Amino acid sequence: MNADFLDALRQIEKEKEIPFDVLLATIESALETAYKKNYATASDVRVRVSGSKGGFHVYCAKDVVEFVENDHVEMSLQNARAINPDAKLGDVIETEVTPANFGRIAAQTAKQVVVQRIREAERERVFEEFGDRVGEVLTGVVQRREQRNVFVNLGKIEALLPPAEQVPTEPYRFNDRIKVYVLEVRRTPKGPQVIVSRTHPSLIRRLFELEVPEIAEDIVQIKSVAREPGARTKVAVLSTDDKVDPVGACVGHRGSRVQSIVNELYDEKIDIVRWHDDIEKFIGEALSPAKSISVTCDEQTKTALVMMPDSQLSLAIGKSGQNVRLAARLTGW
Fold it and tell me: Is the dihedral of CA 144, 149, 154, 155 positive or negative?
């Protein structure tokens, strides 16, 4: 195998991140296919390809038999002993069968197989890489729209943002940098397809983890998230350290932390509330910014009756009932 060929393989290994052994095995398989296609009439020829400094050599394994019926897979004892004096009936002898003009023919046949295998290995690697990243948030660039689908470039692959996972109020302009939640990775005939989301509640969780070190370090925990994509989100947080204020940690200095998440979500409003073990206190917090007078819970029906001052009533209900709806989803009551 000449040095130029090895260099070319090393380059492919670096560019495509496909292991060198896989590439060599692919080429061996391709040359085996080339030999069988051009020289073998029998389909059960056993071929071994050896890559050395002198080029590729093809070896065919043949059974030693008394009477040869198929010289592609069998060899007489006399011929076997010419190669190995100790040969006996039933042995398997490997003989070199590299044809004179094998290089040209093999190159033609091997090229297609090698290209195909490299493409398959690349697809498999991408599938494994993104399969491990389901549930993560990645940054991508909006590439194009096709009907109602938006395609987002994630570097090694173009992800699909389907209509069901889009926020109606977001523009998705060409070349916009957006963060997306990896929903699933599918195998398709054209290779792996990554499905991403902008509406998933876990997108909010991941954005807070990226922005708030206390959440990443598990000092502050996000207990629940209720979201109406594009309009408003409520996040309930709890601190495991008495010295750390969970709401303050999420809001940041002069609102810097929460503001960067709001900007990423195209000005979606975010309410951060304290989580309480006491459900009545928690329901009161969940209705913020409205301040309740009293909360009475009925455990059997999982419902709560909240008393509000007249001045706070419309605030508690929210635009088209949005505030109370989100509070109900956040608390599960």
Answer: negative
Low-confidence ranges of the chain (pLDDT < 50): 1, 41, 43
Handedness of CA 158, 154, 172, 188 (dihedral sign): positive
Average pLDDT, the chain: 85
Residue 160: domain span: 137-197
Same domain, 160 and 60: no
Helix ranges restricted to H, the chain: 3-16, 20-39, 77-83, 102-131, 201-211, 213-216, 246-251, 256-264, 279-286, 310-317, 322-331
Encode pLDDT of 291-304 as tens digits. Answer: 888 899 988 888 99
Of 113, 131, 149, which one is at a domain's C-terminal end? Answer: 131
Helix (H, G, I), strand (E, B) or coil at 124: helix
> Residue 224's beta-bridge partner residues?
236
Nearest to 61 by CA among 36, 24, 96, 99: 96
Name the strands in the sheet holding 232-239, side by side, starting at the edge strand that comes first in the sequence. Answer: 220-228, 232-239, 269-274
